[in-house]
Amino acid sequence: MNSVPSQTRRPILLGLGIMLVAFNMRPALTTVGPLLERIRAETELSAAGVAFLTTLPVLCIGLACTLGPWVIRRLGPDRGVLLSVAIVALGSGLRGLGGTPPLFAGACLAAFGIGLSGVLLPGLVKRDFPGQTGVVTGLYTMVLCLGAAAGAGLSVPLADRLGGWPTALALWAAPAVLATLAWLPFAKARETVAGAARPRSLWRDPLAWQVTGFMGLQSSLAYIMFGWLPLVLHDRGLSAVDAGFVSSLMSIGQAPAALLVPSFAARVRDQRGFAAGLLGLCILSLVALVYGPLAWALPIGMALGAGLGGLFGLGLTIIVLRARDPGAAGNLAAMSQSVGYTVASLGPLSFGLAHDLTGTWAASTVLFCTIATGAFLCSLGAGRDRYVGKA
């Protein structure tokens, strides 16, 4: 039997490696929300402390993104991905020590690795799959959403079976270790770009800022839901297990949209219609979950997930489409995610504080809708068929 030529086998293996890395880009974030009540009870965290626990990891993602261009120049994107997923494994395992300091430190460390990998992957897709950017972006975004769903849905059952939330959280280091080992051959085999020329700065580019605004604000919607949806549903009367199950279904609902939206959006010249439809779906779904009948929580949660997953895939696709080459894609990814996730980190904090101050979820819902409106305004520029860095 003839062996598969290396030219064919290598992209396939590289694509599988990207999928393994992508799977580990959300469980460190989605595993905490369903366990918040237990964490609060055992650590005696205040409401503000819980808000910071859901906010600091997102802020760390933004801070990590600022290092993306430096890592690409010093290590190369392939070794950078290896470093990032190893950091995720270390941070996830650290949470197993129990107590408040390891919980916060592990969450922030894992988020740092997530942010770094998020900056590096769009450039890799642009470099290694130039003719299939929409398909590959959709695939790894779908796998990312499946990882988020696994984290949200399994955290409570694992805590019940393993005797507590620290062990359940630490267990998510295992798939990150597997991804680290799987990526090791690519980091050894591929050339680095140490000493490469710095790409053109985008900080004065209006289009880059529009992409950044869209990426940050739509991400804020997702992180609000990752951190607070289980508690919203629990307050409405669902058990912790059922609330976690709805949150898991929300993450599962992200996967089909995360796969399909990038594939279709990459085929058209203008992505503004996609943004408007997906943001409208998110607003309607959250309002229905907060004020509608709980009997409809499962399908509405999946609809919310479809909106959030589609928006995330659309954001990553826009980054690739608005860049002429891999260097510009990496530079735009670094800017849009460093600033964007820093802005996004304010969403979960503000959402929680609004509830803490008013005692209801009404003000928090209004805040969510306001953020979605801001994302739509940014998409009016970010979705147009132009390139960043044009003279």
From TrEMBL:
Annotated SUPFAM superfamilies: MFS general substrate transporter
InterPro entries on file: MFS, MFS_Cyanate_Porter, MFS_trans_sf
Membrane-spanning residues: 46-68, 80-97, 103-125, 137-159, 165-186, 207-231, 243-261, 273-294, 300-321, 333-354, 360-382
Taxonomy, superkingdom: Bacteria
Keywords: Membrane, Transmembrane, Transmembrane helix
Keyword rRNA-binding: no
Pfam families linked: MFS_1
The name this protein goes by in its record: CP family cyanate transporter-like MFS transporter
Species, as recorded: Methylobacterium goesingense
Classification lineage: Bacteria, Pseudomonadati, Pseudomonadota, Alphaproteobacteria, Hyphomicrobiales
